[in-house]
Amino acid sequence: MNRDLTTGNPAKSLWLFCLPMFGSIVFQQLYNIADSLVAGKFIGENALAAVGNSYNITLIFIAFAFGCNIGCSVIVSQLFGAKDYKTMKTTVYTALTASAALCGILMIAGLISCDTLLRLMKTQPEIMADSSLYLKIYIWGLPFLFFYNIATGIFSALGDSKTPFIFLALSSSANILIDILFVKSFSMGIAGVAWATFLCQGVSCILAIAVVLKRLAGIKTKGTAPVFSFNQLKKIAVVAIPSILQQSFISVGNMLIQGRINSFGVSVTAGYSAAVKLNNLVITSFTTIGNGISNFAAQNLGARRHERIREGFFAGLRLVWCLCVPFCVIYIFFGKYLLLLFLNESSSTALLTGRQFLWILSPFYFVVSAKLTADGVLRGISAMKQFMAATFTDLILRVILSFILSGLLNSAIGIWSSWPIGWSIATVLSLFFYKKKCQILRKQI
Which of 50, 194, 307, 320 is most buried by its number of CB atoms within 10 A? Predict the structure, then answer.
C-alpha cells in the first residue's frame, strides 16, 4: 500500500512508516547473523572468523547496492510527493537499467580481485580458503542484492514499508533453516552457509521486483513513461554517488581496521566477528530509520511542506532513542549470552574480546543515532556535501585512531575506543549541518 507522508500528524506518519522498516532490517541482519551463528556453532571458530573476515569485503558491494537504493528512493520520493507519476516511473526503469550494468562490472571486478583483497587484509592462512570460497559465492549473488535493494527503495519511496518487511521476514527465517540444513545435514561447510544466503536472497529479490512492477502498472499516467532518461539518471547519481562513496570508504576503512584486528590473532578476529554482528544490527537499524526519514523529508520537500521536515527529525530522534535504551541494557549486562550464540565457552579470548567491544560502544548509541537521524534529513533534501563531510570525518578519525590507540595500548581495546570518538565528533557536524539547512528551508516557506 502506498502512503502519502505529506499529510497527517508528522510523528505518527513517520513512526507508522519507520517501525516496519526497523522490523525489516532486523530480519535483514538475520542473514549475516545466521551465517555467523551456524559457522561458529556447527563448523568452528575458524569458520566464524572466515565469515566475519569476508564480511568487510561484502560491505563494498553492499555500499554500491545501498547507494542505488538511496539514489532511486530519494528521487522517486520527491516525484511521488509532487505527484509527477510519469517521470517517477521513468526514474524507476532508469535505476533498474543502470544498476544492472553497474552490478555486472562489480561481479567481474570482484571475482578477479577477491583473493588479493583478502591478502591485503592480512587474512590468516588457516581461514584464507574458507574466506575466499564464501566471498566468491556471495559475488555470484550480487544481482539479487542489487535488484532487491532497488525494489525496497521504491517501496519506501511510495510510503510502503510493510511489503519489504513481509519479504524479509519470510526469506530470513528460511535462510536460518537452510543454513542449518546445508551445514549440519549435508555437511557442506562454509559453502553451505553461502549458498543458503544465495538461494533465499534470490527468491525474495524475484518476488520483490514482481510486486514493484505490478504496483507501478497500477499507477495511471498520461501516456507511456519512457524506459530510460539520462536526465533522471543524473539526478539519481547526484544522490547515489555520494552515498556509494560514503559506504565504500567506510568499507575500505573497515578493511584497514580488520587488518589491524587480524594482527592480534584468530581468537580476537572471531570475537570481533561475533560482536560486530550485534553492533551492526543496531547501527543498521538506525541507518534504516534514517532512510525512512530521508523518504519523509524528500516527499515533503517535493510537496513544499518544509515545516514538516523539522517535525519529522524530532519524531525520528525520539524513535531511535527509544531503541537505544534496550540495546544498551542488553549489550552491557547480557552481551555474554548473545555472544555465546556464536562462540563456545572454551573460546575465552574471543568471548572477552566481544564483551569488551560491546561495553565500549553501546553507551554511545545515543550519540551515533542522533547523527544518523540528521543524516537522513540531509540525504532527503539532497544536501549531500554536508552529509559526506560528517561521514568522512567519522571514518578518517576511526581509522587513524584505531592504529594509534591500539599501538599505544598494545591491545585491540585501542581499536574499539576509536569508534566513540569518531561518532561524537561527526555527530556534532551532522547536527550543525542539519540546523543550517533547516534555517534555509524555513526562509523558503
Answer: 50
Task: Examine the pLDDT at 13 and tell me if it is beyond 60.
Answer: yes
pTM of the model: 0.70
> CA 420, 423, 428, 434: dihedral to nearest 10 degrees?
-150
pLDDT at residue 428 in the model:
95
> Taking the CB of residue 248, how many other CB atoms lie within 10 A of it?
18
Q: Can you tell me the distance from the alpha carbon of 76 to that of 156, in angstroms, rounded to the nearest whole number?
A: 9
Q: Can you tell me the distance from the alpha carbon of 61 to that of 139, in angstroms, rounded to the nearest whole number?
A: 8
d(CA 364, CA 77): 31
Which backbone phi and psi does 322 adopt, to 5 degrees? -65, -35
C-alpha 169/C-alpha 165 separation (Å) is: 6
**Side-chain half-sphere exposure of 21, counting CA atoms within 13 A:** 29
**Which segments of 258-312 are extended strands (E)?**
none
CA angle 238-244-249, nearest 5°? 130
Per-residue pLDDT tens over the stretch 167-187: 877 887 888 888 888 888 888
Question: Helices 230-262 and 413-443, interaxial angle, to 10°?
Answer: 160
